[in-house]
Structure formats: C-alpha cells, structure tokens
Amino acid sequence: MLRKLLSSIVIAAVFVIPAAAQSLKAKVDMKAPAPRLPNGKPDFSGIWNRPGTQDLTRTFTNANGTSNKGEPNPLPFTTWGQAQWDNYDPVKYGDYAGSCMPFGWIRSFTPHPMQILQNNEYVGFLFEQSTMFQAVNTEGVTHRKDWPPTWFGDSRGHWDGDTLVIEAVNFNGLAKLGTIGHPMSDKGKITMTFKRPDMGHIEFKWVLDDPKTYTRPISNERVFVLTPDVELMEYSCMEGNLQSLLDGVITPWTGPKDSDVNRLYGAAHDWPAYDLTKKQTLAGVIRKVNYRTAPPSIDLEVDKKVWNVVMAPPARMEFRNLSDDMLKVGATASVVAYPSKQIKDELRAETITIGRATTELR
Description:
Layout: E1 2-5, H1 8-14, H2 19-22, E2 46-49, E3 60-61, E4 67-69, H3 79-87, H4 90-93, H5 105-108, E5 114-118, E6 122-127, E7 132-137, E8 154-160, E9 163-169, E10 189-198, E11 201-209, E12 218-226, E13 233-236, H6 237-247, H7 266-269, E14 280-290, E15 297-302, E16 305-310, H8 314-319, E17 332-339, E18 346-354, E19 357-360
Parallel strand pairs: 16-18
Antiparallel strand pairs: 1-13, 2-5, 2-12, 3-4, 4-12, 5-6, 6-7, 8-9, 9-10, 10-11, 11-12, 14-15, 14-17, 15-16, 17-18, 18-19
C-alpha cells in the first residue's frame, strides 16, 4: 500500500501542542514526568508504538516494551456471538479491512504508528492505517442524539483524576476487535482508559460491555511506548488495494452478510452439542482431511478406532498458522477434544498438536 508524508500544517492548525511533547529535535527522557496541559491534566501527545494485538486472547511483551494482557481463551460467547465468531470468513464473505473500510476503535490500535494530539478540550487520534482519525471531546459532555451508527461509534471523554476515560456507543456492529475476527455488536459499549505514568509510556485499557455477543464484559490491558523519532505517513489504502479487489485477490466487502445462526456448524456441531465435562486427549494418525467442508474435520485413527474430529473454521486455523498443508494424511496428531452428545465417534477439538506446534481451535 502506497504511503506518503502526512501534512503537519493541517494538524497544527487544529491542535496547539506543547513543544516538548512534539519536537523531533528534543532528546527525550522516557522516565521523566509526564507532560501536562495548561489545565493541569496529563498530555498524551506523541507518536506511540502499540503491541500488535491481532488476537485479543494473547498475552505477551515485545522487545520494545509494548505489551498486552489478553483475555483467556475461549471467550465467553453468547450463542449469537459464537455464531458470529465461527461464521467470520473474509475470503468467502468479503474483507472489510482489505476493502478499506474503517477499522473501528480496538482494531485501529494495532497496525502502523498512531499519533495523539491534545488540548484542554479535545484529544485527537491519528492512525496511519488508512489515514483514519478520531477527535474526542474530553469535557464530559453527553453523547450526541440522532446520529447514525458508525464504525467507531459516538465517543465522549471525561477525566477521572489523571486518567482519561473515553466511552464509545452507537456502533454499526460491523467492525471486528482484531484481525482474527472477534466480533462485537451494535449493542456494545467500549470504555477506554488512558494513563501516562511517565514521559515514555501510556497504560491503556479497554473494556467491551456487549451482552448480545458476550456473557460478561471483556477487556485487554496494553502498554504503549513513545517513539519520538517516528513521523506519520499518508496511507492510501484504496490506491494499493484497488487492483487486488478488482482481480479478486481480496474479496470485496459489499455490506454485512451476518447470520443469527451458525452457518458452519449448525446446532449438531456447535459447542453445546458436546459434553464439556468429558475432556479427552487422544493421539493418532490422520486418515482423512476435510479442511473446507461444513463443518471442517479430520478422521483420526487411535488404536485402530477412527474418530471424526471437528475442527475450527478455516480462516481461524490459517490465522493461527495451521494450514491445510500441515494437516496431511498420514501425519501424527494429538487433540484435546470433547465427545458429541448425539453423534457416535465424533469429537470437537479444542487444540491440536502436530510435531511441536500446538494450535488453539476455539
């Protein structure tokens, strides 16, 4: 994707930023006290490196100091939420990100640099990805009335001491929480908190309260690291992706194709159809592979008995590096799985191990 230098003139006209927070020439002491606005509140201005959290169930710390504390896997899906999670297939139903649609709040915090610009009344988020932005009032005003639902929703900020709190509502429900495709609905509310304990770090937490999708609120806690030597560039998404969309290399997203039911598994192969009190670990030889059927499955021979093992959606397996080339007939595999309540000799796998690589399937 072609990227060009972003004009700093327009940005400077909108936000007046203290020189120490923005200068490319100043030497930055990352452990120095956090800068403050004229009103005394912390100033989050700067260009920030964030952890590449494409899957919100991952907990990790990167060498550059960015980190994520993720949710345990599996997430607490409702029946509807599980269907959205299993149905997600950008190759089959269209790739909204590859089609250059907005990412929404949480997914936008993952790729490419991000700059924050701030004054007493507003905080602005400039995402290099697709040149997206959000400008949020921080004076504690109420949410707007009669605005249409959007990808980022309606965002309002307020202060809790030195913590900036942003609440976003009125979503269109089309954005995912990460590249892997964890869903959210139009009923969700995202609460984000930002703390700047020193010059070089932001402590960021988001909480999604979405009872249509999850049985409890879910969250991540992340650390951002200041990168004072980085500048944003223009990111012309369609300029880079248009030919791929026309050629079908990227499946065009032409609108939501969601379903309230689980297209891939149906009632017979959805998780409630399995006895989750009877976890089994079985090792054997793969005798048959149905990678792209509904449902995806393998036949696993264990001690001369063949089990039909239901697998994860292809898009999820591919994202987690379990390609169809790895599931070869004759390969040895081990699964952690649960027996079907109704279908004889059928299991649904939670993990599969081939060689030294274990893949989570939920």
